[in-house]
Each structure stands twice: as structure tokens, then as C-alpha cells.
Amino acid sequence: MRPHAQSRISGKIHPRRPGGPAARPAGVIHDNTRHTSHFTVIGNHLAQHRELSGLAIGLGVHIQSLKAGSLVDIRTLAGRFPEGQARIAAALRELEVHGYLRRPRERTPSGRMVTRTISCNQPGRPMLLVVCQDRATAEWAARPVRFGPPQWPLLTLRPLVAGPHNMPVLTDPADVRKDLALATLSAITQAANPDIGVILKAMTNVLRDTPAVLANPIVELIAQGLGTYPASETWRKLVAVDLSFYKSPLSEELRDEGRAEGEARRAAEDVLDVLAERGIAVPEAVRERVVGCGDPDTLRRWLRRAVTAPSADSEDVTW
What we know:
Elements: H1 44-47, H2 54-65, H3 74-80, H4 85-97, E1 101-102, E2 105-107, E3 113-115, E4 118-119, E5 129-131, H5 135-141, E6 145-147, E7 155-157, E8 160-162, H6 173-178, H7 180-189, H8 196-207, H9 212-226, H10 230-242, H11 249-277, H12 284-292, H13 296-308
Parallel strand pairs: 5-8
Antiparallel strand pairs: 1-4, 2-3, 6-7
Helix pairs in contact: 2-4, 3-4, 7-8, 7-9, 8-10, 9-10, 10-11, 11-12, 11-13
């Protein structure tokens, strides 16, 4: 048999060329089976989150897979996972920052403060918050509002209502410092509480050590939230004294008012001092009017009159 040349090898099966039957993709290969029971739907926005740590993602997935009422405090999670309480606490804070967890503090009927853990499987959903300062209004506002005909309801709105009956009374600065947002709501909803002065004082004690970028909006929000309640004036005075170094609009307004009041008081004293130096008796009605005047222009005019007026109650002198 005569020798002959080997036939050309087809490019599709060439051992040195890619793309043959033995070629495999470089990434992950999924071997999936459809779940029909014992599964939880987890969003890729959590499972593939670009800013959360791997531990935070894992804890978020674990918490979402649990039944309602399961314990998810730091101690329980540290007993389940090997990372330790410090790392687990940090991961939970990550989940809070990104909206996957909320941990509001509430007061139980017995008066004890507890922390609730709320897991959100899709952060960023809109929520209606209603803030009330009396229980009757709060309970009315908490009723669900249904849209659409009775036989075909289209939407049910359930607002989150904060009122004096479900907001804690925070008088200890240590409790305020734990949750400034809750403390702000508490201060506003407890406007009619007899202890509102102590509540507001605890707020200013904490805000004094809080960065201005966070403290200033809280100062303004509480001022607006207290409305026409007497507590509003208490808050203004506390802000003027305890937070005198802040530059929020309310603080600046209060300091301007304080400066104007101080100037008016000194001007009124000047009027009375001039009259006293000249030996002129000042009737009580005139004294009260001078002291009660807050207009700088009027006080300057009265000061000039005090230099030449023959008496404080002369007919040709109008105070």
C-alpha cells in the first residue's frame, strides 16, 4: 500500500483552535432546579448589592428568609454565625443605612422600652407618615383608606401614624442619643405633655454635641412641629441659650430677637436714668410704658425728650 498525505483537519474540530465541542464558558455554570416549597424570593438588589459587605448581604438574606417573629438580635445572630457580635452589629448597621432594616424603639403598655426589628425586602417604597399631637386624631388618621368600588377595591392606604399614645417620652439624653429621628418625633408628638420642658431639654443636651449638618434640620423641624403650643416658646428659649453657637435660621432669628430685646431694654433704662438724674418723678404708668416699649426709634425720641421735659407727666410730653 502506497503512503499518502494526511487529510486536512476540519477547523470545527481542530485540537488547537477554540470553539470545538470541548470548549466551556469561563464563568459560573448554573445547575438549577425549580423550587416548589421551602424557598424565599430574594431581590438581586440585595444579593448583588455593590456597597454592602458580604456579611451584610448574607445576614440580609438570612433575615428575610426567617418566619415573622424570629429573633434577630445581635446575640442570637452571633450564636448562629461565627463572625462574632462586633462584626454582626456592624453588618446590621449597614443594612439599616441602606434601608433593609428598621429598628424603631417603642414603649410597651407596661412602660418598658423595646427595640423592634423590621425587615424590608424592597427599600425605597413610599410611605405616608402622619404626625399627630392628640390621641383621638391619631387613631382617626390610622384607619385604612380604601379606593375604588366596594366590590373591586383598587388600593388600600395604611398610613404610619405617630401620636402621643405610641411615641415614647424621652427625658434621658442617653435615650435621645440612641435614635435622634425617634426623639424628634417624640418631642413633636408630646407637645401637650406636662414633661415637655424636660423632653426638649434632653434634646438640646444631645444636639449640643451633634454635627450642625444634622442638628440644624432637627432644630427647625421641632420648631415647626410644635406649632402654636406653649412648648414652642420653650423650645425657642432653649435653642437660644443651649445652642447659641449654631447657625440655623431659627437660631439666627432668635439671636437677632435677643439682641433687639437687649438694646430696647438698655434704651428704656437710659430714659429712666436721665429722668432720675434730673430729679423728675416718674409715675408708674409712664414707667411701665417706657419699659414695655420695644421700638428703638421711639425710645431714642423719648430719650431726647427726657433731657428737657419739665416733668414725666407734663401735658406737652407724650410718652
